[in-house]
Design goal:
Elements (H helix, E strand, L loop, with lengths): L4 E4 L3 H12 L4 E4 L17 E3 L4 H5 L6 H12 L9 H15 L2 H7 L28 E3 L3 H18 L3 E4 L2 E9 L2 E10 L14 E8 L2 E4 L8 H7 L12 E2 L8 H8 L4 E2 L4 E9 L9 E6 L4 E4 L15 H9 L5 E7 H7 E3 L6 H4 L3 H5 L8 H9 L3 E4 L2 H12 L6 H12 L10 H9 L3 H6 L15 E13 L2 E2 L6 E3 L5 E7 L21 H17 L2
Parallel strand pairs: 1-2, 1-9, 2-5, 9-21, 10-18
Antiparallel strand pairs: 3-4, 6-7, 7-8, 11-19, 12-13, 12-18, 13-16, 14-15, 15-18, 17-18, 20-21
Helix pairs in contact: 1-6, 1-18, 3-4
């Protein structure tokens, strides 16, 4: 047989697995429906955040973390409630992944040349009890070079494998079916698509030149999730999150369409936790889109006030950066598909960042000079561009002007000045003391006890209606589709399991196609920094297991 393994998908998980296989001397066929310009998949577009536990970066910042605390946070966040069924292997993957994140993950990456920005971020802060959802401490380690920086070492290893004759790479090959013989997956069938020279991330054609079929000892599915396919997202949307929004932005390229998950099911694989998904609530329309309906996520600090579409402030834990799933549920049940941040220029200068490698040219380009400019007056340049050109921003000198602008933006008077002013003044009265009953104000003061937040992330508490902190800013926030938390159920070797719980011979999965491990390593919620990490870990696990065959 010409190939030991066919890897379907040239995203991060596929690159990690292929590089592991080539390193063990195995012959790999690497296929993807997109052009070679998209090598690295979604990971290339990412902010490059990785979940690490008790790292040197944390310790230098005075953060006391531990494996026990991380595992407590993971369990409180995941909420596994389908044990001995859909969550059985996700739970085992979670234990293995936290071990990895607290153990060899950092040194393994450093051995490949990966380095980290010294300030550790605090994502998904939780906002409930100690054993509930959220990171108890900052754990979000940004790769120096963001998404391209984490893709590069594995892409380089794959290119070396190609030069060594161990990896055969065929872009523009769209797999549509798995070949099975006597209950065993032995290959793939699909369509050779016409060449397309569009740049990374742009939607490409599906013009078919010819059909193809190829065989191998095993097939590894690393073909991603469903975030670019709103029809599938809505079909799997759970009732507990309310109604899916009528308008939703897309946080991933169009090729993230989930078309191969059904093919794996037909071959005997079990798809679990379909109703678990991770969509962001702070999406803004990209004024310069790369893919259709391109949404960018705001990575907010904790200070902006968050209101629903009718101008009612959300309560705990629905503060910026605290509990994504809870806020998604609150928005879904509000009857509208959008919400609002209201903040000051003083807040946006320190607290707004935009997710994605292309929105962070300083970190992506490894420019210390540009990074130092973040401490200068004014919002970061990408944020300034959205304020001037983005359709979701309203900037005004006074609150009446701001409310008028918010209503004009949606074409209907849904927000009333008197009620908005009442809520903001009530919050502003809580600022005069270093203690308060407003939980968001308390959270802001707690955040500034963290060195990283105080230095670069959280503005000093101040009155929103203080003219010296202005102008006032409102941002319409849209739901932006992103991650699939469920997927093909796999054991710790990456073998896809069937309905009987036994491995489907010859079929493996990794990355988002496998729910980042086990069909749902995250349970219901993510601690963030765990999607790239899940691709790294599940791709490595599958690659190493297949290398033993």
């Amino acid at each position: 047989m010409e190939y030991d393994v066919i890897t379907v998908g040239h995203g991060l998980a596929g690159l990690v697995a292929a590089s592991e296989l080539a390193g063990a001397g195995k012959k790999v066929l690497l296929l993807d429906q997109e052009p070679a310009s998209n090598l690295g998949g979604q990971a290339w577009w990412s902010f490059g955040g990785l979940f690490l536990v008790d790292s040197p970066e944390q310790r230098r910042m005075g953060i006391k973390d531990s494996h026990e605390l991380a595992w407590q946070d993971w369990l409180g966040t995941a909420g596994f409630d389908r044990m001995n069924d859909e969550d059985e292997w996700g739970y085992q993957w979670a234990k293995a992944y936290v071990d990895f994140a607290a153990g060899e993950k950092r040194e393994w990456l450093r051995s490949l040349g990966v380095r980290f920005f010294p300030v550790v971020g605090w994502a998904e802060r939780g906002g409930s009890l100690a054993d509930g959802h959220g990171n108890s401490v900052p754990r979000f380690h940004i790769v120096w070079g963001t998404g391209p920086g984490i893709v590069k070492p594995f892409a380089d290893r794959v290119r070396q494998g190609i030069r060594d004759g161990l990896i055969h790479y065929l872009p523009r090959h769209r797999v549509t079916e798995l070949v099975t013989e006597n209950g065993m997956v032995t290959g793939v069938r699909g369509e050779k698509l016409a060449e397309d020279d569009r740049t990374r991330g742009e939607k490409t054609s599906r013009e078919v030149e010819r059909l193809f079929e190829v065989r191998a000892g095993a097939v590894l599915m690393t073909s991603g999730g469903i975030g670019g396919n709103h029809e599938l997202v809505r079909a799997n949307w759970p009732e507990r999150l309310g109604s899916p929004p009528a308008r939703m932005l897309t946080g991933v390229p169009a090729y993230v369409d989930g078309h191969l998950l059904g093919a794996a099911e037909k071959a005997g694989g079990r798809l679990v936790n379909r109703d678990r998904m991770w969509h962001y609530t702070e999406g803004i329309q990209n004024y310069d889109p790369v893919w259709p309906n391109h949404g960018i996520r705001i990575l907010p600090g904790p200070s902006p006030l968050w209101f629903n579409a009718e101008g009612q402030r959300f309560g705990a834990p629905n503060f910026p950066g605290f509990d994504t799933l809870s806020t998604l549920e609150a928005i879904g049940k509000s009857g509208y598909g959008y919400s609002w941040f209201v903040l000051t220029k003083k807040m946006i200068e320190k607290e707004f960042a935009l997710s994605g490698s292309e929105q962070n040219p300083d970190l992506t380009g490894k420019s210390i000079r540009m990074i130092l400019s973040r401490v200068l007056p004014g919002a970061p340049e990408p944020v300034e561009k959205f304020m001037k050109r983005g359709e979701d921003f309203v900037v005004a000198r006074t609150l009446p002007e701001l409310v008028d602008g918010m209503n004009d933006l949606v074409g209907e008077e849904r927000i009333f000045l008197e009620e908005m002013e009442r809520q903001i003044r009530a919050r502003d009265r809580e600022i005069d003391n270093k203690f308060a009953k407003d939980l968001q104000v308390m959270a802001i003061r707690s955040a500034r006890a963290s060195m990283g937040d105080k230095l670069v992330r959280v503005a000093p508490p101040h009155r929103i209606l203080d003219p010296a902190a202005g102008p006032l800013i409102a941002v319409r926030l849209n739901i932006v589709s992103r991650k699939t938390l469920g997927g093909l159920q796999t054991n710790l070797s990456g073998q896809v399991l069937g309905a009987d719980g036994e491995p489907v011979p010859g079929l493996y999965a990794a990355g988002e196609a496998s729910g980042f491990g086990g069909g749902g390593v995250h349970g219901y919620r993510s601690l963030e920094g765990t999607f790239l990490g899940g691709c790294l870990f599940s791709g490595r696990q599958a690659g190493r297991a297949l290398s033993q065959g």
